[in-house]
Specification:
The structure holds two protein chains of two kinds.
Chain A (H helix, E strand, L loop, with lengths): L8 E5 L4 E6 L9 E6 L6 E6 L4 E2 L4 E4 L5 E6 L8 E6 L15 E6 L1
Parallel strand pairs in A: 1-9
Antiparallel strand pairs in A: 2-7, 3-4, 3-8, 5-6, 6-7, 8-9
Chain B lengths: L3 E3 L3 E4 L5 E7 L5 E8 L3 E8 L6 E2 L6 E7 L2 E6 L8 E8 L9 E2 L3 E5 L1
Parallel strand pairs in B: 2-11
Antiparallel strand pairs in B: 1-3, 3-8, 4-5, 4-9, 5-6, 7-8, 9-10, 9-11
Chain lengths: 111, 114
């Protein structure tokens, strides 16, 4: 059970902001929200994570709602190289440490 | 930047061959993982290791073994490759402590068993 719901696919124009939503209504109080992406035929790449405050790094911003039931990953100026599958993850196995990936959102950045 | 290097991007092997997939990380991470990724099935954990010479089975260990003789290297071994082991294999590593759930992945090895 991935515990997250994401749209299957999204399009974004090159140079515009890409806003990727994620619902995690059953998130526990101590569970973080992690975002990864996977470009075709490559390994997943860590982007950002947060608990309850908004976070920003060189790749993206993460906005988490006050009730923590949903979040949005923002790529401020999408490029063609941002075309990938984006995964929102809140569940990590306490026994193994494995990340539990859902189906993710396929983001297509178009020229 | 953390670097996780997998020895091969593409491999083609024959049924029954012994196959070694190597993974090296350069950040002194304690924990290392082997996943396989198949269409429609997502990422599935094969084995993980939280220290040198320590290993634990993941969800699908059958047909695989692992070796971790040095902290930076985690090897996945297919004792006798079969066609149902054709897959994308991903290695990951993570540090302990507060960032223990941030996994860094290698580029993957796409293995075809004929």
């Amino acid at each position: 059970d991935a515990k997250t719901t994401q749209p299957t696919s999204m399009d974004c124009a090159e140079g515009r902001a890409a806003n990727l939503p994620c619902n995690h209504s059953t998130i526990s109080g101590n569970e973080y929200v992690y975002w990864y992406r996977q470009i075709h035929s490559q390994g997943p790449q860590y982007i950002i994570h947060g608990l309850k405050n908004n976070e920003t790094n060189e790749m993206a911003s993460l906005i988490i709602t006050e009730d923590r039931k949903s979040s949005t990953l923002i790529l401020p100026h999408a490029t063609l190289r941002d075309t990938a599958v984006y995964y929102c993850i809140v569940r990590v196995s306490s026994n193994t440490g494995k990340l539990i990936f859902g189906q993710g959102t396929t983001l297509q950045v178009k020229p | 930047d953390v670097k996780v290097t997998q020895s091969s991007r593409y491999l083609v092997k024959r049924t029954g061959e012994k196959v070694f997939l190597e993974c090296v990380q350069d950040m002194d991470h304690e924990n290392m993982f082997w996943y396989r990724q198949d269409p429609g099935l997502g990422l599935r954990l094969i084995y993980f290791s939280y220290d040198v010479k320590m290993k634990e089975k993941g969800d699908i260990p059958e047909g695989y073994s692992v070796s971790r003789e040095k902290k930076e290297r985690f090897s996945l071994i297919l004792e006798s490759a079969s066609t149902n082991q054709t897959s994308m294999y991903l290695c990951a590593s993570t540090s302990g402590g507060a960032r223990k759930n941030i996994q860094y992945f290698g580029a993957g090895t796409r293995l075809s068993v004929l």
